[in-house]
Amino acid sequence: MNTIQTSSKTVDRKSVLANVRSVVIKIGTNALSDPQGRVDAALLAHFAEQVAALVARKIQVTMVSSGAIGAGMAELGVARRPKDLPMLQATAAVGQSILMNLFGAAFKPHGLHVGQMLITRGDFEDKERYLNLRNCIDSLHRSRCVPIINENDSVTVAEIRFGDNDLIAAQVTSLLDADLLVLLSVVDGLLDGRGETVPIVRDMEDAAGNVDEGRKSDRGTGGMGSKLMAAGTVKKAGKPVVIANGKRPGVIVDLLEGVATGTLIMPTGRKLSSHSRWIGLTARTKGTLVVDAGAEKALKANKSLLASGIVAAAGEFESGDAVLITTQEGLPIARGLTHYDREEVDVIRGHKTSEFAALLKMETYYDEVIHRDDLVLE
Ligand code: GLU
Fold first, then answer.
1. Residue located nearest, by CA, to atom 5 of ligand 1
2. Ligand 1 centre from 250 Cα, in Å?
3. For 324-355, what is each residue's pLDDT tens digit?
4. Helix axes 41-56, 85-107, angle to 10 degrees
5. How much is the mean pLDDT over the chain?
6. Measured in angstroms, how far is the CA atom of residue 29 from the centroid of ligand 1?
7. Per-residue confidence (pLDDT) for residue 275, from 0 to 100
8. How far apart are CA 99 and CA 44, in angstroms?
9. In this predicted model, what pLDDT tens digit does every residue of 242-257 receive, in sequence order?
């Protein structure tokens, strides 16, 4: 293993975390279970107490909680995570209601309600449904409810699953433009070659070399790899992430007070608009546009993508779909929403806008294939 750039001397945690007004907290299955695999009501009570302390300070808290499958397994007396999909779905159906009942009971003494939101990948990939999710979460916050999000494991099948709540939590952080994502599991953070917690990560590539993928849970799906992937998304959205041990008493409150626990992953500092975050971090690309060096230069200078710079297209995409833009060597440059479908791109690529009317047999058309407002650099 390499050593990560660990110096925390120049990073004052307090200054990074002091102004957090909105936080997404993801709790992994093991972090909320007792040694027998049952949801531990005392642990939930402690989480609720900490969340209530943040809410009292006017910090908006959105939770992403795993544990449905684990709770279902304990309830049904199943020792191994079911491999059969309908059985896995059924197990989650049993466990999710147990989980939410216990969360409801944990928050009640603090005068807070809980709002269950079960989501699928499609809810994020469709822009309208995506924005609706945000509206619902906003309304829950206004009603003294703590939103508790999980994947809708009882209806999802392999092809449309996130499969992983670390990734969902990253998407929720981007959706809400929250100031911080906290990923709680049962490890103390990202560990270096000597098994010590890395306090600060600035460069995700350094961090990725240190992941011990062997350390995976047998009831949840996460692991450090998915945490780093999630952190990479949030970092790109310009926000910090903390990976910490959920079983450490007071961990959530301590983190927000700047106590050095867990691993803090620093943001890149680039602030993206909501539209850009959706294009760059959430939308599923349906095809690829390969561009020449001139177009690459124009894109990097924040200009729109014109047909003249496109040398090839791949995939089946419609007007309005997200596409990936690459160099001729296949290096990703940007993502964007195309005005033209695949067939039209094949007709106009390499041509000037003045030729579009004749080529497309249309009187009105877009000058650019992707407008600069719908482009996000990788
Ligand atoms: N949605 C799964 C559950 O509630 C957990 C997925 C994960 O572990 O990330 O059990």
1. 66
2. 23
3. 999 999 999 999 999 999 999 999 999 999 99
4. 60
5. 91
6. 7
7. 95
8. 10
9. 999 999 999 999 999 9
Q: What angle do CA 6, 168, 199 make, to 5 degrees?
A: 10
Q: Give 58-107 pLDDT, tens digit per residue.
A: 999 999 999 999 999 999 999 999 999 999 999 999 999 999 999 999 99
Instruction: Please name the residue that has the structure tokens 């390969």.
Output: 290
How many C-beta atoms lie closer than 10 Å to residue 329's C-beta? 6
Which pLDDT tens digit goes with each residue over 187-221? 999 988 888 899 999 887 777 666 555 455 555 55
Indicate which atom in ligand 1 lies nearest the CA of residue 65: 4
Strands 375-377 and 332-337, bridge-based pairing: antiparallel
Q: Cα separation of 293 and 113, whole Å?
A: 55
- Distance, in Å, from the CA atom of 149 to the CA atom of 22, rounded to the nearest integer, reads 15
Give the binding-site residues of ligand 1, using a 6 Å CB cut-off: 29, 66-70, 150-151, 153, 164-165, 220-222
Pocket test for ligand 1, best of 26, 32, 64, 69 (most atoms within 8 A of CB): 69
